[in-house]
Design goal:
This protein is of the alpha+beta class and 175 residues long. It has two domains: 57 residues; 112 residues, Immunoglobulin-like, CATH 2.60.40. The strands form two sheets. The protein has a four-stranded mixed β-sheet.
Length: 175
């Protein structure tokens, strides 16, 4: 390559770099905007896929859900819950301090989401923790349900009963 050709090439390269720095900033801004738009689209698509997946895996006619809530929690410190349907263990959960704090503040936890055939079933929840006077406490709650063609929702409630100084375990079937 001749000296003049090299000089011309290097000059053209320097000019391209100088002039492209302004357009590179503009291109960078446009690229960032496009990336943000793509992120929003991906999040929306992910949400739609999650809803579709739940609809496919848990059709409305067989869908069965169990939730847990606590009111106060001063007479009972929950450690774990075991959930059975028709004598088959379907869920076990050990609680962290963070989860217990959320439940005591009014949170509701979904213990189980699955499919259940139509007909009569027995649901058993076994609660383990520390009860009054710092004693180990284990209590079971049983409910018989009739599953129809609609989704079925059950809420297990742990409520303090100050009159008896004991925790009360209730089951509420959502209509």
């Amino acid at each position: 390559m001749s000296q003049a050709l090299r000089f011309t090439f290097i000059s053209a390269l320097i000019c391209a770099c100088v002039f492209s720095s302004v357009s590179a900033e503009e291109a960078d801004t446009e690229l960032q905007q496009e990336i943000q738009a793509l992120k929003k689209d991906v999040l929306k698509l992910n949400r739609n896929l999650f809803i579709l997946e739940e609809d496919l895996l848990f059709p409305a006619n067989t869908q069965f859900s169990v939730f847990l809530s606590m009111d106060a929690g001063k007479l009972f410190a929950l450690d774990s819950v075991q959930l059975k349907i028709d004598d088959k263990v379907i869920a076990n959960h050990l609680y962290t301090e963070r989860e217990l704090t959320a439940l005591k503040r009014g949170g509701v936890q979904r213990l189980y989401l699955g499919n259940l055939s139509s007909g009569e079933h027995e649901v058993i929840a076994i609660f383990t923790g520390v009860g009054p006077n710092k004693r180990d406490y284990r209590r079971g709650e049983t409910v018989k349900i009739t599953k129809g063609s609609e989704p079925q929702f059950i809420e297990l409630q742990i409520i303090d009963d100050p009159a008896k100084e004991q925790p009360v375990f209730k089951t509420r079937i959502w209509e």
